[in-house]
Amino acid sequence: MTSPTWVLHDPTSELDPIVRPRLRPPPSLEGRTIALLDIGKIRSDEFLDTVEKELRARGLDVLRVAKPTNAKPAPDEVIHRVAGDADVAVVALAD
Predict the structure, then answer these.
(1) How many Å apart are CA 41 and CA 35, to the nearest integer?
(2) Are strands 33-38 and 61-66 parallel, antiparallel or unpaired?
(3) Residue 43 and which of 81, 92, 94, 95 are 20 to 30 A apart at CA?
(4) Which pLDDT does position 65 carry in this prediction?
(5) Structure confidence at residue 13 (pLDDT)
(6) Domain ranges in the chain?
(7) Residue 70, φ and ψ in degrees, nearest 5
(8) 85: helix, coil or strand?
(9) What are phi and psi of 31, to 5 degrees?
(10) How far apart are CA 64 and CA 53, in angstroms?
């Protein structure tokens, strides 16, 4: 059996996006901080509330972060907080 081929598309509006290799997910979430990023879409906070409850029930560290609006890119402070304070991120895309 062959492994599936994944094609990842850059969701930004950059005309010349930076091509980066995809990082491998960690083998475990133990001892890691998981950022839950609310992008401001309707009901994404409800989704993240459920995810946070499940992660905390497993004894994992969670960092909640939110964009002020879904209509614009995340401010630098939000990006730096996720990149600097978390090991992995879950991004809520809900409506």
Answers:
(1) 17
(2) parallel
(3) 81
(4) 95
(5) 63
(6) 33-92
(7) -85, -5
(8) helix
(9) 75, 10
(10) 12
Going from the C-alpha of 26 to that of each of 11, 54, 58, 64, 69, the distances in angstroms are 23, 18, 16, 20, 30
**Cα distances (angstroms) measured from residue 38 to each of 3, 18, 58:** 31, 24, 21
Rg (CA), the chain: 15
What the block records as the tokens of 14 is 């950059």
Residue keyed to tokens 């402070």: 77
| pLDDT in single tens digits along all 95 residues of the chain | 566 777 766 666 666 667 778 888 899 999 999 999 998 888 888 889 999 999 999 999 999 999 998 888 889 999 999 999 999 999 877 55
Q: Hey, what amino acid is at 68?
A: P
Q: Are the beta carbons of 35 and 90 closer than 8 angstroms?
A: yes
